[in-house]
Structure formats: C-alpha cells, structure tokens
Amino acid sequence: MTEIHLKRVYNEPDPSDGYRILVDRLWPRGMSKERIRIDQWAKALAPSTELRKAWHHDPDQFEHFAHVYRSELEKTDAVSDLLETLDEVSVITFVFASKNEELNHAVVLREYCLERYSRRERE
C-alpha cells in the first residue's frame, strides 16, 4: 500500500517525499515552481472556494468542515485519478500551505484517500 505523507509547502522538499502533489486551490504565496518542486497540482482535490472561505480555519468548526469537504470529495472524479496514482507510486506527499498542520484539508484528504484505497483493495 502506498504511503501518504503530509508536508507544508514552506518546508524543504526531500527525496523521501516521493511523488509530491500540491493539494491547494490557490498557488502558495511567495513560492516559485522551482522551490516547491511538485509533480502535480491537484486543484480539484482542494475544498471549494465557498467551503474554504466559510471555514476560515476555525478549529471549532473543523468537524463540520471535514464532513462537508468529504461530501465534496465524493462528487469529484479527481479522487479516482488520485487512487490510480496511488497504484503507481510507493510514496505520495500532499503538499499544503496551511499554518495548522493538524487541522487542515490535507489531513482530511489523506484520511479519505486511505479509506477509499483500502476499501477498493478489499473489493
């Protein structure tokens, strides 16, 4: 099974990151393509602009945000594409800009993908 790691975009890339996917809808402020060194920019995996703005990174609203975000993920074909990528590589790192490393959309996306991937393997 593929490992999925999480890393802030402002931390230095490392070869151990494997396949790096930027999972933000907006390009990170002040970052160049050379510095980020991503393999893919998956805007469609990021929360909708409306959800992102409504949440405002309020820790008290994280559970609600995660629930709505998971609903959005259920409706996008981008997850199926990502699951195919998981089949092809051994390590993927979701790269994100959020300051909060524990309460952010990449955490929810990682959990969601691992659940979908393991469910798919059981079928």
Structural write-up:
The protein is α/β, with parallel strands linked by helices and 123 residues long. It has one domain (3-122). Helix content is 43%, strand content 15%. It has five helices and four strands. The protein has a four-stranded parallel sheet, covered by helices on one side. The mean pLDDT is 92.
| Morphology | globular
Main sheet record: 4 strands, parallel
Approximately what portion of the residues adopt beta-strand conformation? 5-15%
Mean pLDDT: 92
> What percentage of residues falls in helices of 4 or more residues?
40-55%
Uncertain spans, ≥5 residues at pLDDT below 50? none
Total E-strand runs: 4
Terminal CA distance reads: 15 Å
- Count of spatially separate domains: 1
Order of helices and strands: EEHEHHHEH
Structural class: alpha/beta
Oligomer: single chain
Keywords:
123 residues; alpha/beta
Q: What are the SSEs and their pairings?
A:
Blueprint: E1 3-8, E2 19-22, H1 33-36, E3 40-41, H2 49-55, H3 62-74, H4 78-88, E4 91-96, H5 105-122
Parallel strand pairs: 1-4, 2-3, 2-4
Helix pairs in contact: 3-5
In a nutshell, what does this entry contain?
With 123 residues, the protein is of the alpha/beta class. It has helices spanning 33-36, 49-55, 62-74, 78-88, 105-122, and strands at residues 3-8, 19-22, 40-41, 91-96.
